[in-house]
Design goal:
Shape: elongated
Strand content: 5-15%
Order of helices and strands: HHHHHHHHHEEHHEEEEE
Number of strands: 7
CATH class of the largest domain: Mainly Alpha
Strand order of the largest sheet: 6-5-4-3-7
Number of helices: 11
Radius of gyration: 20 Å
Distance between the termini: 24 Å
CATH topology of the largest domain: Lysozyme
């Protein structure tokens, strides 16, 4: 879960992807982590653009994750301070240079297909896959950006520790176990923004409802749940019922899940998905809390 470790892992994994792309092979099958996080329509576009430009599609998906959470961040469709907009966050002048990569004579900066193919063309023009780091730096002139994209590419590539079994491990306080069992009982419930009942949950609504079953009142939103603590010290093993949090930093928490075993959580991930079990070893992992002890 350490960002430096994730980045280092990506440096080992990406050359393998580069070789496959250069050889003109079939796109690699998406890992469990990729399928869990990437909307199917976006996943198809990343794969198509990667094949077209002989790039690892996981690299394109990682750019899309960092830039707009695969189009799920509504703020991405309003120009930022630099004027960048759309699912791949292009400035209009840059998009004008690459926007026709998908073959659309009138490309739209907000259209996922046009934007993803444009990103592939730009990365290719700036040295990828031969020099992926330089290409990413040209895309966004920041070392943190390069590291974060490479970390997500590694997460989407590796199958290590991503298999899910959905089993609740032993241990944890009784109230925490009750909360985890309730979360598991909601598997298959549709995601619903603002949802806090079995008719539909969002991530923090599921957490709040689960702990209510255990007699513990938690705040409603993920940021407040994180702030409520108490934090699990870094390096201490997590227990069933612990809450794991994700986001850009500790002041911008945007997702939460409930731990069920040493590698998995239950969460309500995003619109169009169902409550499910999945790994919590993600590049934007921030830390964990233990509401029950």
């Amino acid at each position: 879960m350490n960002g430096l470790l994730a980045s280092a892992a990506s440096l080992l994994l990406l050359p393998v992807l580069v070789i496959a792309a250069a050889m003109g092979g079939e796109p690699s099958q998406p890992s469990t982590a990729a399928v869990a996080d990437i909307p199917p329509a976006y996943l198809t576009l990343y794969q198509e653009a990667g094949a077209e430009f002989a790039l690892p599609w996981e690299l394109l998906a990682a750019v899309g994750k960092v830039e707009s959470d695969h189009g799920r961040n509504p703020a991405a469709f309003e120009p930022n301070a630099a004027g960048a907009v759309g699912p791949m966050q292009f400035e209009p002048a840059t998009f004008a240079a690459y926007g026709s990569a998908a073959g659309d004579p009138s490309p739209n900066i907000d259209d996922p297909r046009d934007a993803i193919f444009a990103a592939a063309a730009m990365l290719r023009a700036n040295g990828a896959p031969g020099d992926t780091q330089a290409a990413l730096f040209a895309y966004n002139h920041a070392d943190w950006y390069v590291s974060e994209v490479l970390a997500w590419a590694a997460a989407y590539t590796s199958e290590a520790a991503v298999g899910t079994n959905g089993e609740l491990a032993a241990g944890g306080a009784p109230a925490a176990t009750t909360a985890a069992r309730y979360a598991l009982s909601q598997l298959g419930t549709p995601y619903l923004w603002g949802g806090e009942s079995p008719a539909g949950f969002d991530c923090s609504g599921l957490v709040q409802a689960a702990y209510a079953q255990a007699g513990i009142t938690l705040p409603r939103v993920a940021q407040d749940q994180y702030d409520a603590g108490p934090l699990v010290p870094q390096g201490q093993p997590l227990e069933p019922g612990d809450l794991v949090f994700f986001g850009s930093d500790r002041n911008h928490v945007d997702h939460v899940g409930i731990v069920i075993n040493e590698t998995e959580m239950v969460d309500a991930p995003h619109t169009g998905a169902l409550v499910r079990t999945e790994p919590y070893d993600w590049p934007d992992y921030l830390g964990a809390t233990r509401p029950a002890s």
